[in-house]
Structures are given as C-alpha cells and as structure tokens.
Amino acid sequence: MRKRTTTKQLHNALSNNLLTVEKAELYNKTTRKTEGISIDTFKDSIEFLCETIFAPCIGWYFEKNHVTGNYEVDCSRMDGSVDIIVTVYLRVCEGANAEDVEKTLLLLEE
C-alpha cells in the first residue's frame, strides 16, 4: 500500500543512513520515455529542495517491496496536471531496520 511522505522526511532517511539510493528516474507521461538521473544529481537536488519554500509542495509516496525489502518512492504519479514523474529506488542500509525506515518516512496527518 502506498503511503505519503515529505521531501524532508525522505532527505532525513537518506542523510541518517537508513536508506541509500540505488537508482533514480524521470518518466515523461506525454512521451512515455524514461530517463535515468545520476544518484549524485538526485541527492544534490533533494538537499537543495529541502532548503527551499517549495519542499512542502511536493507530494511524495512510498511503498515497500515485500519480496526484496527495498523501497520505491515517487512524486507526481498521482497528480494529473504534472507531466514528469520522479521515481527513486531505495535499499535499506546495513544496520537499519524496517521499523525505523517506516517511522522516518511515514507522514502523520494531524
């Protein structure tokens, strides 16, 4: 089941060594083409984004693959007005557990 998260929560999971990026992609809904982006570019972009006023505007969703134990995080998939989907494939870091990852990523609605 897909769950909501935020830019800052995703950045915290990465910077606290709970998750590591395996692959990041941009998918264009109009052309139906996928383009890979470098891991360093994604990390730099998410770090920069966290420092801007736009960080809360982006709707991120995550889901755990129960077969591999890895996570997939994306934004814009559920937004019909946006043409580009960002998808990031994440692996749980050694020493981290699923409970800590879920606690860090899960957006708690007030």
Can you tell me the overall shape? globular
Question: Can you count the beta strands?
Answer: 6
Content-based structural category: alpha+beta
Strand order of the largest sheet: 1-4-5-6-2-3
- Radius of gyration, in Å, reads 13 Å
Give an overview of the whole structure.
There is one protein chain. The protein has 110 residues and is α+β, with helices and mostly antiparallel strands. It has one domain (3-94). It has helices at 7-15, 39-50, 98-105, and strands at residues 3-5, 19-28, 33-37, 60-64, 71-75, 84-92. The chain has a six-stranded antiparallel sheet with strand order 1-4-5-6-2-3. A hairpin with a 4-residue loop joins strand 2 (19-28) and strand 3. The longest helix has 12 residues, at 39-50. The protein is globular, with a radius of gyration of 13 Å. The two termini are 20 Å apart.
Provide a quick synopsis of the model:
The protein has 110 residues and is α+β, with helices and mostly antiparallel strands. 26% of the residues lie in helices and 34% in strands.
